[in-house]
Amino acid sequence: MTAQITDIKSPELLVALTKYMRLVNFIGVAELYLKDNFLLEQELKREHIKTRPLGHWGTVPGLNFIYANLNILIKRHNQETMFIAGPGHGYPAILANLYIEGSLGEIYPEYQRSKQALGKLIKNFSWPGGFPSHSNPETPGAILEGGELGYSLGTAFGAAFDNPDLLVACVIGDGEAETATTATAWNSIKYLNPKTSGAVLPIVHINKFKISGPTIFGTMSHEELTNLFEGYGYHPIIVDGDFLYEPMLNAMEEAYQKIKAIQKEARENGKIDKPKWPVILLITKKGWTCPKESKGFMIEDSFRSHGVPFENIHKDDEEFALLKSWLESYKVNELLKDDGSPIDEIQELFPKKELLMGLNKNANGEMTKDLILPDLQKYEFDLGKPGSKLTSNMAHLSKYLRDIIALNKDSFRVMSPDESVSNKLSPLFDVTERAYVWPSLPGAEKVGPDGRVMEILSENLLTAWMEGYILTGRHAVLVSYESFMMIVASMIDQYVKFISQKEKFAWRKPIPSLNIILTSGSWRQEHNGLSHQNPGFISSLLNNHSKHIDIHYPVDANMLIATMEECFKSKDMVNIVSIGKRDLPQY
C-alpha cells in the first residue's frame, strides 16, 4: 500500500503530477497516431503512423489533468468517487488513465500494464475490433454513452441521489455546456438533499473552442462566470493562469472541504437552507501541450487542436516533423519501468484498488437493489359486470405507486414534469412530498427536501436524473404526457445503445429497468386538441428494433397494475406503458 498524501503543497507531489501528465498526454497522442513503435524505441518513421489518424485531441489534456487531480484527492481522503466525462471526444484520456491506474487491466487481463499491453491499447484506439472513439459500456467506471452531448451533469445528480457516501465528479465541456439539458441541470442542486444523498462536484472544462468556433463560456470574463454560477446557487472556484498545477490541487481541496461542511451541517445539525455547493471552472488551453503553430496558424489554444491537429503526416514533411517532436517532447522513456508499468512516482498518486474510479462499484451494477413490491391482490378493482363500472386507470395505479414509495424510502423515485396532479398521482402525497431543498413559497403544498416525487418542467433533466439513478442500481418511473416525450426520444435511444451493448460484458451486472408511463394519448386529448397530439415517441423507439424495449397497452386498471409489477421486476429493459387517465370502462 502506498503512502498517504498529506501535503498538497509539497514540491515532490507537483513533480510527480507533472510526470503523470506527461505519461497520459503521451498515451493520448499516441492513441490518435501510432500503429507501431509505440514507445519510440526506434526513430519515428511514417510506417509507424496510422494510415488515417482518428479521434480528438483538444479536450484530452484537460481531462487528463482533472483525472490526475481527482486521484490525488481520492487518495488523500479515501473518498469513494465516480467519474463522469461529459466531453465525449475525450475518450483517449479516459483510456490512458484507466490503463495506467490498472483499472483497464483488472477488467481486461490483456491490458495489464506492460509494454505489450500499452502498445495494444495505443493501436486499438479507433481500430477495427478495438476501442471506439467514445466512452461506452466497454469502459470501466462509465455509465454514460459518450456520443451525444448534454446528459453528463443530470446523470451525475441521478447517481448521487440517495447515495450518501458517493462523490460524483462530473466534467462538463464548455461546448457541452451550451446544450439545453446541461443548462437546466445546473438547477439540480436545489433537489439534492445533503443529509441523505451524495454530492456532485461539477468541473467545467473551459478550453474556449468547439470544432470551429469559440464557446460561450470561453468568451466570458471571470466576473461574468462568477455571477452566472453564483446566480445558480453555486460557490464557483476559478482555476486559470500560466501554471495550473498548484491552483488546481488547492481548488480540489477547497471544493472537497466545502462539500463535507455542507454534509456535516445537514447530517449533524439538520441545516440545509440553500447550501452553496462548489463548482470548479478550469480554464486551459485547447490542445494543451501540442505544437503551438503550423504554417503560421495557431494550433494549441485554438479550434485547430479540437480533432486530429495534423492529418497529412504521410504527405506533409512539416506536419510529420511537428508530430515527431510533439511525441518526443513527453520523454516517455523516463516515465516507465523496464516492464512497461509507470514509475513509482506516478504510481504513488493512485488510490488503493477499491477506490479507483475505473472500478467504482456503483458503475457496474454491483449496487443494484430489488424493489420491495406490495401484494397485487389488495389493489384489485372489482369489475362486477365487465364494462359496467368506470374508473381512472392512473388514479388506481397511484395507490400502488404510493405504497411502493412507502416500502422503498431510499431506492425509488417518481419523475414528473409538473403534471403529478393532472396525471392523477395525488395519492403519492399521502406518503411523500415534491422534492425541493431550497426554501419554498407560502402558497406551496407538499414540498420538502425528503420528497420522492421529482417535479421540474424539463423532461430532459428528469430523464437524465432517472438514467443516473437506475444505472447505479435504484428504481424509478417517469410519468408524462405522450405528446411531450418526443423531447427525449434521442436520449432514450442513447440509453438503449448503452444497455444493448453492456450485455456483451459479463462484468456489468443487470440493472433495474427504465420505466416510462405515457398519459394523455394522442386520441384522448379532450380540450387540448392538436397542440398535444404527437404519438411519435413510441414509433421512434420501435425503430431501434431492440429486444430491450417493451411497449405495453394495458386495457384497464387491473391489467395496468399487473403490467407495472412486471416492469418493476424486469432488468435491463426500457418499458413504455401507454394508459389513459380519465374514467374508462373496466373489463
Describe this entry's structure for a reader.
This protein is α/β, with parallel strands linked by helices and 587 residues long. Helix content is 34%, strand content 13%. It contains 16 helices and 17 strands. The chain has helices spanning 11-33, 60-77, 91-101, 103-107, 115-124, 152-160, 180-185, 222-232, 245-269, 317-329, 344-347, 393-407, 459-471, 489-502, 536-542, 557-569, and strands at 81-85, 167-173, 199-206, 234-239, 277-283, 293-294, 297-298, 390-392, 412-416, 434-435, 447-448, 453-455, 475-481, 514-519, 549-552, 574-578, 583-585. The chain has a six-stranded parallel beta sheet, sandwiched between helices. A five-stranded parallel beta sheet has the order 1-2-3-5-4, with helices on both faces. A two-stranded antiparallel ribbon has the order 6-7. Helix 14 links the parallel strand 13 (475-481) and strand 14 (514-519). The radius of gyration is 25 Å and the shape is globular. The model has no long low-confidence stretch (mean pLDDT 94).
